[in-house]
Specification:
- This protein has 336 residues and is α/β, with parallel strands linked by helices.
- It contains 16 helices and eleven strands.
- Helix 15 crosses helix 16.
Length: 336
């Protein structure tokens, strides 16, 4: 029995999902572009709990991904943030999804200045660590010798090659921490990340409001646009150090991204808060509707717009993704 089984919000989400006349979140064409809507992940325990989203027959990694991919055109893979992915995993993702399915993949923590547990490194890289780093519980990319730091990026890029070759890799999400501030060194860090990713598209999400104040916003967005980096629009808690204003901004003609994190300001920056506490937020339809005109406008500025629901608790994200897709499809019709 999981928390989701007794959560009234999950039950409300089930009821709402049942009333959406749209069992599949198909791509929404807008002008010459398209909007793809999905969720961050498909394997969270609160989502895989009995009766929440998956039928009883979807009881394995393969059947769950196949079921999810039959209902949504895109998913964000967050697990590589915690542990570098393997080529075999990417090959299986390719095999288990339709030809036109898209994966956005979150960069490993070491790639964006955040800590990673040493035990989560592949054995090959862990064994290559200097002794003093091998004894630590957590390390940062800046702690690594230059050749090992490069090896982390090379491992990540190589692991995603099967997705890229199949045309299923949408973007690599570079989510920077709140201590990543707007300065010359960090601006250069963005270009270094882009160069290391090679042909892969990069999408940048900031977690510090200083990048997008009235004074810095134009400079930040102009820099991303100049260097072909996609800005990640954010719907999340406001009034905090890590808050990003919910603005519409597209900095790449190839890709736009919106990530919806929920609006639980009271737990967003709380030390030790788990995923359920931070992202357990079911948007009401009025909140979702507020994004519809902004997303339609954004979709006309880029070829592909990815809308990722990161309120990844129980069926909150899947329900909201279906609801928002229906709203977008209705509004995008000529007489909508």
């Amino acid at each position: 029995m999981t928390t989701a089984d007794h959560d009234p919000g999950a039950e409300a989400a089930r009821t709402r999902a049942a009333t959406v006349p749209l069992p599949h979140a198909t791509p929404v064409p807008v002008g010459s572009g398209v909007i793809l809507t999905g969720t961050a992940g498909w394997t969270d325990p609160s989502l895989t709990a009995a009766g929440v989203f998956y039928p009883g027959s979807a009881d394995s990694a393969e059947t769950r991904l196949r079921y999810y991919a039959d209902r949504f055109p895109i998913v964000e893979v967050d697990s590589p943030y915690y542990a570098l992915p393997s080529r075999r995993s990417a090959e299986l993702w390719v095999e288990r999804t339709p030809d036109d399915f898209t994966f956005d993949v979150k960069a490993n923590a070491l790639m964006t200045g955040q800590p990673s547990e040493v035990k989560r490194l592949p054995k090959e890289l862990r064994d290559a660590l200097p002794e003093e780093l091998r004894r630590k519980t957590r390390i940062y990319g800046k702690d690594l010798p230059a050749e090992l730091y490069s090896a982390v990026w090379e491992w990540f890029v190589d692991a995603l090659e099967p997705l890229h070759a199949a045309g299923k890799l949408g973007a690599v999400l570079l989510q920077y921490p709140k201590w990543f501030l707007p300065n010359r060194a960090n601006a250069a860090e963005l270009l270094d990340a882009k160069a290391r990713l090679g042909e892969y598209r990069a999408a940048v999400e900031f977690r510090n409001h200083r990048w997008l104040t009235e004074r810095t916003r134009e400079r930040t967005l102009g820099y991303l646009a100049e260097h072909g980096l996609a800005f990640v629009m954010v719907d999340g808690p406001q009034g905090l150090e890590s808050s990003i204003p919910p603005i519409r901004a597209v900095t790449s003609g190839a890709l736009g991204v919106l990530r919806l994190h929920g609006r639980r300001a009271e737990t967003w920056e709380r030390a030790g808060a788990g995923v359920a506490e931070r992202f357990r937020y079911l948007y009401d339809t009025t909140e979702l509707a507020g994004w519809v005109p902004e997303l339609l406008a954004a979709a006309r500025e880029t070829r592909r717009l990815h809308v990722i629901h990161n309120n990844c608790y129980a069926n909150y994200g899947t329900t909201n993704a279906l609801e928002l897709t229906r709203m977008l499809a209705d509004a995008a019709r000529p007489n909508g």
